[in-house]
User: Fold this.
Amino acid sequence: MEYVFLGTGAGNGVPEFYCNCDVCREAQSRPECRRTRSAIAVIGDENILIDAPPELSSQLIREKITHIDYLFITHSHHDHSAGLGDLEIYTRFHRKEKLPVFMSRNTLVELQKSYPSLDAWMGVTLIEPGDVTELPDITVTAVEVAHCSGALGFILGREGNRVAYLPDTGPLIDRTQEALLGIETLIMDATFWGENWYPESHRSVDETIRTAQSLNVGTLYLTHLSMHYSVPVTCKEIEKLIERYGGQVKLAYDGTRFNLERVARGYTQTPTLAVKRAMTDAIHI
Ligand SMILES: [Zn+2]
Ligand SMILES: [Zn+2]
Assistant:
C-alpha cells in the first residue's frame, strides 16, 4: 500500500494570504514549499483517507485519487474537517452508499454542531484509544493524543510494517509511547520552530525529533508544519537541520509518497554519540 501526504501544513497553511515574509516568499517561488492543511491517504485496492482538510477536493485531484472507501478523523478542528462538505457531495451523488467513517464520540459530537446531516451520509463507527479496526487490507489502531477532547492518532499496519499518524499532539502519554516504541514509520506534529506556544497540544520540530529518537523510531516524517508561528523557518533551513540524521528524519511535503517496502529502517540501535550531539544542537533552534 502506498502512503501519500495530501497536505502537510498546520492550521494556517503556507503561504499565508496576509503575509509577505521570507517563508511565504519561498513558498510563492518554490511551489513544493506550499503547504495545504494536513491529511494522508493510504492507496490500495481500497483507499483510506485520514482527515478532511479545507483543500481536500484539490488535494485528491492533484493526487489522482478517484474514490474514498474509508475515512478516519483524528479530531474536529477546522484544519482537519472543513473538507467534509466535499465528501458529502461525493457520497450522496457519486458513491450512493454511506461512507464508513471512524472517529471518537467527542469528535462526532463536535462535528454535528457544524454538519447536522452527518448521519445521512456517514456510516459512523465510534472508536476510542486501543480500538483495533480490521479493514480488508490493513489494520488501524487508535491511540490517545494530547490535543483536544477525543483527539486520536492512528497506527496503520501490523508489527514490522507499521505507520503511525499523529498530526496534532502534545507530549505523548505513556500508553501511546508504549504503542509507538520501535515503530517503523512515525508521522508526527512538528507545528513549531523555536518556542512552542502550545506545549500541551502541539510539538516543535526539535521536540518531535527528540521523541522519535527516544522511541527508537525507524523513519520520522515531520508534518503539520506552521513554518510561521513563533519563529518563521524556510524549508531550506529545516532541510539543513535534518541532513545530519542521514535520512532517518524527513521533511514531509504535499505530495510526498512512500510505501513500506522502500522505507529504510533507521533507529534500530542505541543512538550514537553523533546523533545525540545532533539532538542537543536541535534543541537550540
Ligand atoms: Zn491541526
Ligand atoms: Zn487541532
Summary: Residues 75, 77, 147, 168 surround zinc ion (ligand 2) (CB under 6 Å). Residues 262-285 have pLDDT under 50 and may be disordered. The CA atoms of residues 88 and 121 lie 6 Å apart. The chain has ten helices and 14 strands.
